[in-house]
Amino acid sequence: MSTLKDAKVVHTSVANEHEPKENGHSPFTQNALIFTAAALGNMFASAITNPLDIIKVRQQLKTQGSPHPLAAPGAKANAFWSVGLQMARTEGLMSLMNGLTASMLRELTYSGIRMGTYEYFKGSIHGLAPSALPTDGLTLKVFAASVAATLGSAVANPTDLVKVRMQAYYPTGPPYRSTRHAFASVWREGGLRALYRGTDATTIRGVVLSVSQICAYDQLKQSLKRRGAMQEGLGLHFTASMFAGFICSVTSNPVDVVKVRVMNDKERRYKSVLDCVRTILRQEGPMAFYKGFSMCWARLGAHTVLCFVAFERIRSLFGIAPM
User: Fold this and answer.
1) N or C: which end of the chain has fewer CB within 10 A?
2) Biggest CA pair distance of the chain
């Protein structure tokens, strides 16, 4: 009798492990709701961290030797507090919210795709080689995050470029009246090609960021639950996202510096992404790739915690199981 009871418990446990996450939703509806939750969670996080993001961009645009014309007005120091205070004094406090609309559009497309399709690609890739790519393996997670990030970066590059342009400093005042005007101005520079300037850097950065952020979060959650250290809930979401935020800040900052420089290169100083990397190394040294790191960590760390906590909460409201 006891044996039958134990067997039933084991069977139930296995069944629950492989139970579909749809909770009554069709696969299409489930994927659409996950995309929506990812987009909303990231838009929420970006709205709160926009001041940190713009200070990071200004720091990354500052070149060695003399202040970059689009970096920070007259400030010799490049510390985040110095850049922030200088912006507030010379451009007004609301300058810290520059590019917010473009940032929201970017999160809707880029983050909606890279985070919202991660589980879809994870399931699809697992189906191609179930024995070689187990669902709890890191390799499957890396593949899924890479595909989702590549797709998201390719689609969202124009919004990312416009956001960077709107967040840069201009001595004669902001040249863009609105996000729409910024898109039109970039289009006049060279059409679709101008809007997709820096796509290679954006894609590399997107893959590096997503692999280190999403995979770290997924893997840490899985490990903590498997070892019985934590159970599903806010505490687990917060802890996993805190570690994921630091990891992705370390890995993505060098690529982010290059991406920002290339996207804001109106004078065409850089022939390519590789040329930009060589120029930075030659003129500023390897540590230049970590310009703005403290602000990158503050912004990306906070963004990671906020977006994953919001993402999981919105999923719950939609009746979808946690990630």
Assistant:
1) N
2) 84
